[in-house]
Fold this sequence. Notes:
Elements: H1 2-28, H2 35-56
Transmembrane segments: 7-29, 35-56
Keywords: Membrane, Transmembrane, Transmembrane helix
Amino acid sequence: xSRFALSLVIMGLLMNALLVLLLLGDALLxxxxxxxxxxxxxxxxxxxxxxGLTMIEPRRMVR
Length: 63
């Protein structure tokens, strides 16, 4: 379970790094990445990060 969660976190970080690289490249060569593709990549990276961190973090029992 923790390997899967850790892989989700790493995948989310890599997606966000890829998004930054693509957007920097888009600033140098305009119209290479559509805004919808950038938005989907950002959402997927964020969901992967949050999902993986939620799985890693132990939950407290609230009474």
